[in-house]
Structure formats: structure tokens, C-alpha cells
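Schema walkthrough. Field components (list of strings):
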Amino acid sequence: MDFNLPGEDDPRRIKVQQWFENNPNPTYAQLAEQGWTAPNWPAPWGVGADAEMQWIIDQEILRTGLELPYTINAIGLNQCGQSLLTYGTEAQRKKFLPGALACEEIWCMLFSEPSGGSDLGALRTTARREGDHYIVNGHKIWTSAADHAAVGVLVARTDPEKPKHKGLSMFLIDMNSPGITVNPIVDMTGEKNEYNEVFLDNVKVPADALLGREGEGWKIAMEQLQTERVGMTKPGVVWGMGPTARDLMDGLIATGRISDPLIRDEAAKAYVEGEILRLLTYRNMTNRINGKPAGFEGSAGKMLSSPHGQRMADLAKRSQGVAGMIRDPDVLPLPDKKWGMFSDWDYAYWFCPANTLGVGTQEVLLNVVAERVLGLPRDPDPTAKLPFFETTKTTARAAE
Amino acid sequence: MDFALSNDHVFLQDSAAKFVNEQVDLSPLLRPGADVSHAGYDRLWSQISELGWSAITVPEAYGGLGMSYIDLIMIIGETGRTLAPSPLFGTLAGAWAMQAAGSDRQKSEWLPKLSDGLKLALAMANENGSYDSTAPDVVAEPAKEGFKLKGAKSFVVDAASADAIVVSAMLDGRKDFFIVNSGAPGLDVEILEWRDITRQVCKITLSDVNAERLEESNDQVWPWVRDRLYLVLAAESAAGIKAVLDDAVDYAKERIAFGRPIGAFQAIKHQLANIAGVSEAAAALVQYAAWALSENDQRASLAAAMAQSYASEQYKQATHRNIQIFGAIGFTWEMKNHLYYKRARCNAELLGSPASQREQVVRILEHEAA
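Field assembly_structure (string):
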């Protein structure tokens, strides 16, 4: 057991630093050539980095003032791209991965639909095979980055005769295809949109855009969601991103608000929770170094981190009192660095109800942990075993 | 970075688990009126001291095993999981005080006796439960030979069974540490009606009791010992959370209501899932604190206070949820649920409240920021 992270004199770090000295102001394409935009992937895409090496590379990229590649192209580099290594064809890897790794082609995840997000398996978008292509029709929603994405990772129903989870397939689609309309959603923060809705109207998708085999869509999507949840088991305020409880504590101390006894004890609680999330991140790193696959610890970690972020943001906001009810990003001082999307406590506070909605609601995660980790009985789903086309009738009957 | 237990740690944990599974039996406590003496408090001790558990972190130079605090929590996790009644807590506390405050001669005299079954206790808190270092609860006065102690201490774990008690007492305006033999004239030990009947907790009254001063006493002794006792309680609590979780999960799979196991209902499932998350979190904090203490890391005190505040607070909640999930049967004396509930409740007071440890956390961070 050793909680020390690689130091400044680590020879692996020094090598990375030397490259940055020789290549000031690199582009993401240059970083991708080094294999550093997805260091944990095997060559030629990454460098097969273990978790420590990945941590070193990330730190050195941040030092240059660049945003981390996997926050710019999260879906391509974190959640979905790796599925091509397992399920993709060589042609698919060559076509899709270089643009993703260079952060020149942003990806988005076309999963949730207006009729269901938690019950993702009941999605209604269809992909009908016609000769050498599929015709896609449907309506996706809560899609991050769809408004500037080049590639969409789509889950659609290819076989309505099969039960809901068995008839789904995954495609990599060109977001500029005719028939795709993207509308931004104004969320409750009123700031620049995070989410979009996407209409797919007779979109022609080449048959070779199918990832894996027909019917494997559910399995691949679940793997991707687990990876995404592991990534969210971090101490940042929203889904692991943005300021942490250490920043919160520093800000409360710097402003003197820590002396308020109604703030003080809760700040300590939040601090302890933040350190726990840091430790769970280290445990995930260790598991990856030791070659253990990402299991349900991602669900358990996100289950802890989402409400933690909400408590932190609430405490930061409460420390301002009524003054916090005015639009003002200057809630508590934060160190000057590239925070990415969540660069101030004010935005994080008004955004954080989404913490326990996105990438599985808190209730769905609690079910996942109860069922998959603790082995408790599964929730009944009267539609699970029926051919999908019959389930709409069942739902109607249940409602009566 | 390597957040994983070594094979040696796992082996130690497995052998400790085997021992407690075979030897600990709480059933005598499930009859009203029973106390630790009915549940193997003395019987377990001879085996525990033979295994060397009371001297596990004592340096080899003083006859101990010289192992780390990570090794220690492998064992405490198992005694905590099973609520094993024994004078281990008191003996660890007394031995650490002696290790920190004793001279080389004193340590050589006392610590090797641990492997022969020596039982110790540490008397720190006064009758109000305060650990205030300026309170004159016990006063030391020089005598012909050594010192005489006068006053009272309370919440002394395992005092009635101890062969010797380390007592903090006021001398020249500061708290020093003294050792008192259990048979010394003027020493009165009263066993308190401590609600956690898996532990023995006492009040001691000293009327001019002969005592030997621990020669290296200083004001850093108690914080050093306290951090280690935080670790012990936190490790007990983290293991206890897992134990009451497992019991509640098993029960929720068996107990049928409305035609289904109660564990099929989200109202139950979600409570259990939350406890599962807390259980992982508490275990991670405890392992981190054990590592930090073993490495003498600069965040060791912070880690210990974090572990104790979180694990004991969450243990309270988990044992309460455990009783709720069992329903009314979990409220009866004949079930062991209440033993865990009481252990949890008492662990969250014995060394001060979780809020007091959080106050320590904030003070350390304020100090770091200044």
C-alpha cells in the first residue's frame, strides 16, 4: 500500500517534460501523435500507459495551460472510443479514431429519448436495414455536444420482434448527414446550452457504420456507461469536474466564512467526503494498473459523488447568504486555472440538480448497486421478456 | 500509488477472521443482565495475547511484532466485525501511552510482558468525558518513592481487568503520564453501566495511590496516542458497517412480505445501496489513515481524525438502518442488532464526538492555510 503519487523527479515525468520543452504550444494533433490524448489506449492510438503514467501526462498537459483532451472530446476519448478497439473493424478504427484522438472530430452519445432515459432499453428510435445501408428514424434528447459533434454514437432498434434489450444495435453516424436536426435545449441555468435534442428523419447510415453485431447495442452501451461513471468518481463539484472540497475549504478560509459555526461543521463533512472520492479515484487507478476491469465501482462512486457535489455547491452558495441570489460568479475565490465547463461555484450551484439526473439518475444507480453489487432481487419489468412491439400495449394495460 | 492490500495483509486478515469466527460467541449477551465476562472476555484474551495482537505494533526491540498500522487494522477489522469482547482496546491504549511516554528502561520493563498476556488501560478523560489537558482531575505529588496520585478519571476502557493503568495527572502545571499497579492501595475501580455491553468501561478513583512517572512524558504523547485510538475505533466502525450491511442484506433476501422478499422493494434496496457506498468509503478512509500513520505522513493526524469522524458517524446511521430493515424483531434484546447499534453509538462518543473530530480537521486545514 502506498498513497504517494509520482513526484517531480520521476524519470517518466522528466521525459514528458522534455518533450513539452522541445514542442512549446503543441496542438492536440501533435499530442495525439505522441499517444498522449488517450495514453491508456494501446499503441498506435495511445502508449498503453498505466494509471500513474496517465496521471503524469495529464498533469503535464494541464501545466502547459491546455484543457485535458478527454474533457474536450469526452465521448470519443473516454466513454465510447475504446469500444472500437474491442468491437470495431480495422476500417472503422482507421476512419474514426484519428480524428477523435486529435480532438478534431468531437463525438456525442445518442442514447436517451423523450419517452425514456432511465429505461433506456425501451428506446424507440429505429434503424431499418435497406440494402447496403440502414434508414434511421427517431428523436434523441439530453445529448451533450451534439451541436458541434462530427460523430454520433447511436443506439437504435434494429429488431422490434426481439425483447427490448436484445433488439438494439450501435452505429457510428456522421452528424452532418441529411435528415439530422439538432436543437439546443435551454436548461434551468439559462447559460450556454449543455444539452441538445436531435431529430433523425430518414437518415441514411451505411451498413459498415454498425459497431459490433446487430443486437449487441445494449451490451456495448452498458460498458460505455460504466466507464463514464468511473470517470465521474472524482471529487469535482459536477460529475467529477470543476472545483473540489479542497477548493471550497480554501475559499471559506480565505474569506473568513469558515468561522461561521453553521458553515464550519458542514465544510468539514464536505472536505472528508471529497477526500474519500480522491481515495476511490486512487483505488480505481490501482485496479486499472493491476488489470482489473471497471466493474460496478463506477456506479457506487457516482452514487457518492453526485450528492456530494450538490452539498458542496449548496454550502458555497449558502456562505454568501442572500447576496448569492444575484447573478454573480464570484462566490468564493478559486485558484486561476483551466477549470473547463464548471469554472465558478455560481454556475455549478444552478447546474448541480443535473448531478443526480445525468448518466443514470441517483435512483437508477441505487438500483444498480443494490442488484448487481448486493445481489438483491431485480425490479420487476413486465416488458423485459416480451417482443418489443408488444410492450407498448402492455404499458397501456398497466396504466388502466 | 498502490491502493491494494498485499498478500501478507490478506493472509493476516484471513487468519484473524478464522480465529474470531471460531471463537467469538455473542449469544450469552443476548440474555438480559449479561456483561462482557459472560461472552469470553477473559477466555479470548489468553488466545489473543498468544497470537501477539496486543503487541502487534510494538517495536521488536521491546518484544513486540514491529508490524505496521495496516497490519493492525487487518486484526481490528475482524474483532470489530464480530464485536469480540476482550481487553484489547485498553491494552493497546496503555501500551501506546507507555511507548510514547516511557523511558527506554520503562519500555523494556513493561512492553515485553504484553506477549505474556499483560493487560493495560489508559485513564485520560475526566468524569465529564473531557480530555482537556489543563483540567486537574488527577493531581500528582512527589512522594518518598515516586509519586502519589489523587483524583478521579472516567470512561477508562478495560480498567477493571488491567494489570496496570497509565494515568494522566497534573504535575507542575502540565499533564504527565504515570503508571499505577492494579492492586495499589487507594485505587478504586468501578465498572460503569456502559450501554455497549461488548466493552468494559470503568471509573477509577485514586486516593494517594503510589505511581511511577513515565519519564519521557510530554504534551505530544496524548495526540500521538489519540490518533492511533481514532484508527482503532474507525477500523472497528468500518468493519461494523460492513457487518450490519451484510446481515441486513441477507435478511432482506429471506424475509417475505406482500409476496416478495422485502429486498425487492426500492425503499429497502436504496437504503442498503447507500450503506454499501458508505461502507466502501469508510474502509478506504481507514486504510488511508493506517498507511499515513505507518509512514508518519504529514497528513497522518488529519487522516486519523477524518477516519474516526466519518466511520463512527456512519456506523451510527448504518446500525439504525439495520434495525429498521429487520423490523420489530431487530428491536429485541434476543437479536444482536442492538449490540452493534450500541457499539456504534458509544464509539461515536468515547474519544469525543464526530463533530469534535471535524473541528480538528478544520483547525489542521486552517493551520495549513496560514
